[in-house]
Amino acid sequence: MNMQYAIADDRVYVLEANPRASRTVPLVSKVCNVSMARIATEIMLAAETGKKSSVNKMVLKSIPHFGVKEAVFPFNMFQEVDPILGPEMRSTGEVLGIADSFGLAYYKAQEATQTILPISGTVLISVPDQDKPAALETAREFTKLGFNIKATEGTSKFLKEHGIKSEEIKKLFEGRPNIVDGITNSEINLVINTPSGKRSQHDDSYIRKTAIKHKVTYITTLAAALASAKGIAAYKDNASKEANIKSLQEYHADITAE
């Protein structure tokens, strides 16, 4: 069964429950080496016939690797559409990244969507007031990785107050050179911009649209921003070692019974 939830004010609502497998099922099956669709079918048939299914023979196992599912979106085909997500379905597929660490699995998943995370350069950070405290950890991580940080006035001031060096950059309505110029001139390699919301006096969707137009990777949530920093760190750490490409069968061989 595929269920969709919404959470508001610490209350969980069930939006819908569909009697079918979601696209996540085959990806989880690959990570765990468990044929979930077959087992589910056996359970349903057993309920009808009264026979025992193979689920009774299953044992708890330890999975030492990580799997990260990432959605694929068509925003690069619609450059005038603001790539902000809502409750409606916009993804056109999913990909999977598997590795021995979460960071590297996340990096691989982004790579599979053709959203390549840069391993050096300049990061633009522009977030509304409510997101500034959460952006600190992300900014620190990118600073540790050797990235330069450009930030809009409010964000830059907040970062500097907390000991993080950043270069201030103008928004579109503040004059030039501005964010659009920076992205257009390849001075920005990664954009972290969380939506300001409808209450904002100025629309910042131009930042995300410009990033799409010039094929600059953009991030619209702080959770993804922090995961990206960890992914880049894991990739750089792994790149310094011998290439260790593992097949899916090799990952499965590492799964052991507890």
Give an overview in words.
By secondary structure, the protein is an alpha/beta fold. The chain has 2 domains: 2-58, no CATH class; 114-239, Methylglyoxal synthase-like domain (Rossmann fold, 3-Layer(aba) Sandwich). The protein is 37% helix and 20% strand. It has helices at residues 24-32, 36-49, 102-112, 132-144, 153-161, 179-184, 205-213, 222-239, 248-253; strands spanning 2-8, 11-18, 61-62, 66-72, 93-99, 122-126, 148-151, 167-168, 190-193, 217-219, 256-257. Strands 8-7-6-9-10 form a 5-stranded parallel sheet, sandwiched between helices. A two-stranded antiparallel ribbon has the order 1-2. Strand 1 (2-8) and strand 2 (11-18) form a beta hairpin. The longest helix is centred in the C-terminal third of the chain and has 18 residues, at 222-239. It is globular.
The major pleated sheet works out as: 5 strands, parallel
Number of helices: 9
Low-confidence stretches: none
Count of discrete structural domains: 2
As for the CATH topology of the largest domain, it is Rossmann fold
Order of helices and strands: EEHHEEEHEHEHEHEHEHHE
Annotated CATH homologous superfamily of the largest domain: Methylglyoxal synthase-like domain
Report the structural category. alpha/beta
Number of DSSP E strands: 11
Q: Could you give the distance between the termini?
A: 28 Å
